[in-house]
Prior knowledge:
By secondary structure, the protein is α+β, with helices and mostly antiparallel strands.
Amino acid sequence: MVPQNKSVWCFLANLIVPAGLCLSAQTTVTVSAQANPWLAGMPVGTAIPDPHGVTPPDIVPDQAPVLVPLVLDNDVQVLAVTGATWNGPAPVTPVGPEGDTTTFFSFQAGDYYFGKSDVYAPFMSLVGVFLDDAIPAGDPPPTLEFFTQQSRDYLVLSPLLRQVFFIGDGRTSGGAQQQIGVPAGATRLYLGVMDAYQWWGNAGSLSVTVAVVPEPASILFASSLLLVGTRRRRIKLW
């Protein structure tokens, strides 16, 4: 029987091939603490005002989230995240990609979702959103909630298109690698930082390495090639 779970394929393949074969493509991007995920996919000049009408707005491109330059032909994994972010111009209580897990925020800028869902996630945590090729618009998907450690310890998460989701450091609290399913029609993945409004007042950044997991057939083929090569070397030695 052929295993259907791609993670199982990667585990089996890595028993006989070098580590990293299961990653067909990867890239590292820098995510500013000012990266507002609700500006993902929006044209230059798009602004999200302060809901209290006191401070300047977040605007594209200054507070735009980061587009991950990968072809999203399969599930993705966040392999590594380093750095820290904080709320304010001075490094007051900097936090890593998991954010402040004692404080949970949702988006609070009224009607400026631009077709994206709300989310409840730790303050200043790393979050993401998948988009298709269109400028995001329309009714937002349901809101995901990540209040508990259990909700953040998912092994596989399958967000919808335009549904904002928690990423954190890409691993469970026990150190297991997490996997994120790419929704049908998605062509873009944006990364940002969780806040309620006024992203322009944040500071710091995160360095994030993202990889695409190949299809099981590709893993099996690569594994077979390596096994054949190993056998040939043994024959030559003998």
